[in-house]
Amino acid sequence: MSTHLESAQRVVVKIGSALLTDDETGKLNRTWLQALVEDVARMRARGQEMMIVSSGAISLGRRALKLAPGKLKLEESQAAAAVGQIGLAHAFQEILSAYGFSCAQILLTLEDTEERRRYLNARSTINTLLKLGAVPVINENDTVATTEIRYGDNDRLAARVASMVSADCLVLLSDVDGLYTAPPHLPGAKHLPEVAEITPEIEAMAGDAASIYSRGGMKTKIAAARIATEGGARMAIANGRPLHPLKAVEEGARCTWFAAHSTPFASRKRWISGSLKSLGTITIDAGAVKALMGGRSLLPAGVIAVEGDFGRGDAVTVRNAEGNEIARGLSAYASEDARIIKGHSSHEIEELLGYSGRAEMIHRDDLVLKKP
I need a surface site. Which of 111, 252, 291, 307 has the fewest CB within 10 A? Predict the structure, then answer.
């Protein structure tokens, strides 16, 4: 089982509030965080890309603001998050920098992963940070999220992030060591080391959160597993309480692995080709057709015509000069700007539009060729 984590190229690690903070004092557990970062540094050294989705801002902030124990009002949670996030980000920056890594803070809302233009921006930013060697530390933007649009927990946020950036592994570090057939304290409850498919029976095994600081629970972890595995990532629920929890998983510590249904690449391509409605058409010349067939991106220079009214991030159909559909993809430009830059070289984009946009009209990662 440990090879699942060791063989992954792009890993998202989610940390629960109960691990980062002491239940009684609400203070940051720096010793534990130091050990986790040592794990992350070791995985980075062997070439794995690492991202951290961290809870803990509200629990840290409520202590600083001296808020009473128990459930907080929405505005109190937002105030606590605003205060706690500063301390949390500083702790990550301080510990990661000691290992020579830059730390990047990213705050996301539900709309950032569901509205395609924001999705593309968030995906591009995270990919760039990884390429530059930084470790993104991601949290829900509790300060501006509302009851209606919030994730409600960082398990699902982590799964959305894993799907968005095409990670092939997601590890949920929590205060439980996996999924059981019944609550672990009950006689006869059996631990499940591997879940091949999320069935109604698997969902029925889930319970609710136990920690006063945690908004998650086994139900949200199963929901996260569904999102992650459909996006092509294996997911593990593991006990994060021991020091060096990722190393423990690699060495065979008890956890539950959920099998992925496909690869991240295949899942993303399927989403683009089958789940999105085309809002426009881009016609390209023979040279561009050849480039696409060779696995290249679509550049503005190869575009002959742009039809329809679409925004940046919307799905469009790509046709050749004879009118045959050859691909579908997500446009990096709105239709108005696409018409202005069509037929021009990428280095002319800034002069034509007044801003420095992307070099590609459609990046190859956002393009799916039609099968012959």
Answer: 252
